[in-house]
Design goal:
By secondary structure, the chain is an all-beta fold. The chain has 2 domains: 128 residues, Immunoglobulins (Immunoglobulin-like), CATH 2.60.40.10; 164 residues, Immunoglobulin-like. The strands form 7 sheets. The chain has a 5-stranded mixed beta sheet with strand order 15-19-12-11-23, with no helix packed on it. A 5-stranded antiparallel beta sheet has the order 16-17-14-21-22, with no helix packed on it.
């Protein structure tokens, strides 16, 4: 049975040296396929991880004598046996890297998986990190960039409940926030806990100015519609814009998966036409953050 916790078994300390794919534990000797005699090493995958959770890996390059290759300025690309993994973009090292750089990656498929980094000009200069991944019946490809993003709440999620937080990625000010995104509502069974407020904005009370729904008719039919505002009048009214700190949560969405639903994409906010509306506005109604800086990822059901 799939579980929300992913156990990472890192073969030979999760490192494979360039030109040596036998899990030799990061031994820094030149592989026979490396033109320069340099080696690579991948570190950073911990013994435990969770699907849909970005992991920081460190890629280091070494000279033939084992010293850090501080002058390395090659270009590296990442591949994986996990066909739905989120992989780092191709990257060219700079002098400031001094032979080492951190990258974010997310593995989403259950089973034994391998992450590989390769120098684009020297295929023999590469490194592998091998893992064994378990996860829930869904995965969420977290978006990158933006000023506001929808990210997984790992602590609250379960194998049949995807919990996502709308989070500020930079310091902001505002009064209202919300987004609408097309969804396949045949795969979801929302309940009374569909949406809860965070700490970034105060929606007041009796009633609070917070709502989420998936309409079945009208112009927003089959869209996840959500929004939260401070109140200009009534219980808990707030006179002005809130100061929103980096990392503050606007609100949380709980998306129960419908039993017996077919596998497939539940929502994909990375496709522009699917993100119908998204933004943060101030009390005067002026847009503070627009759709271009509002990052919504891709949620896929994989029973």
């Amino acid at each position: 049975m799939k579980t929300i916790v992913a156990t990472i078994a890192v073969a030979a300390t999760a490192l494979a040296v360039a030109g040596c794919h036998n899990g030799n534990g990061g031994k820094k000797d030149g592989g026979p396929g490396s033109i320069s005699g340099m080696t690579m090493m991948l570190t950073g995958l911990g013994p435990m991880t969770t699907t849909s959770t970005p992991q920081t890996v460190h890629l280091a390059v070494f000279n033939k004598d084992g010293s850090p290759a501080t002058s390395y300025t090659g270009t590296v690309a990442f591949t994986s046996t996990d066909t739905v993994a989120y992989l780092p973009a191709q990257y060219t090292f700079t002098a400031a890297d001094a032979g080492g750089h951190d990258f974010l990656t997310t593995l989403n498929s259950a089973g034994a998986q391998t992450l590989t980094s390769t120098d684009s000009a020297d295929a023999g200069l590469n490194a592998n990190a091998m893992t064994d991944v378990e996860g829930p019946a869904y995965y969420y490809v977290q978006p990158m960039g933006g000023k506001i993003a929808l990210v997984p709440n790992v602590a609250m999620s379960t194998p049949t409940l995807a919990v996502l937080d709308l989070v500020a990625l930079t310091d902001l000010t505002g009064y209202f926030v919300g987004f609408d995104v097309a969804v396949d509502d045949t795969k979801l069974a929302p309940d009374a806990n569909f949406m809860t407020k965070g700490t970034a904005l105060d929606p007041g009370t009796n009633p609070p100015a917070i709502a989420a729904a998936i309409p079945t008719a009208g112009p927003l039919a089959h869209a996840l519609v959500s929004g939260l505002s401070q109140k200009a009048t009534g219980n808990g009214a707030v006179a002005g814009d809130a100061t929103i700190a980096t990392g503050a949560v606007f609100y949380t969405l709980q998306l129960p998966l419908k039993a017996g639903a077919a596998a497939g994409t539940i929502m994909d906010g990375t496709v522009a036409k699917n993100k119908i509306r998204a933004g943060l506005r101030n009390k005067a109604g002026t847009e503070v953050v627009g759709a271009a800086d509002f990052a919504v990822g891709k949620l896929v059901y994989t029973p």
